[in-house]
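To illustrate the input format used throughout this study, we show a single complete record. The first block contains the structure-token representation of the backbone; no residue identities are included at this stage. The design step must infer an amino acid for every position from geometry alone.
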């Protein structure tokens, strides 16, 4: 059985279908590779940045983000790394200042206790001086008088 040759209309339909099929396959491949590229260059870095911001907000230690390229995401990662480093430095400075204040407060408490002890001793000394004065007056009068 011999196939009759395609007429011009059938050839145009077949070539149109082939063009449509090639376009669809190329579009599908383009979508898949585009999705992979966007996921790798945009989505993953943004997910990492979001997680790092959450960790920083919760006070957890943050590993520096990778500054890949000189684009918006790279500059954003660099700014985040600088901010995280500065906040870490500030936390260390605040912890050091708190420790200094705790030490100073301890010294002040020791000084306050010493002052209280000194006031008690001064009061006891005044009481002893007053008692000695009161006891000493009648005795002196008695020594000064011959009939005592």
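Output of the design step:
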């Amino acid at each position: 059985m011999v196939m009759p040759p395609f007429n011009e209309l059938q050839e145009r339909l077949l070539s149109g279908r082939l063009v449509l099929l090639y376009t669809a396959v190329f579009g599908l491949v383009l979508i898949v590779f585009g999705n992979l590229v966007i996921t790798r260059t945009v989505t993953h870095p943004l997910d990492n940045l979001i997680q790092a911001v959450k960790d920083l907000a919760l006070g957890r230690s943050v590993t520096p983000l990778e500054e890949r390229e000189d684009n918006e995401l790279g500059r954003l990662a660099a700014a985040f790394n600088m901010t995280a480093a500065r906040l870490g430095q500030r936390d260390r400075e605040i912890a050091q200042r708190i420790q200094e204040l705790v030490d100073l407060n301890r010294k002040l408490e020791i000084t306050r206790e010493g002052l209280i002890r000194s006031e008690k001793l001064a009061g006891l000394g005044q009481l002893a001086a007053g008692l000695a004065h009161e006891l000493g007056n009648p005795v002196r009068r008695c020594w000064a008088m011959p009939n005592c």
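Structural context for interpreting the output: Helices lie at 8-57, 72-144. The chain has one domain: 10-144.
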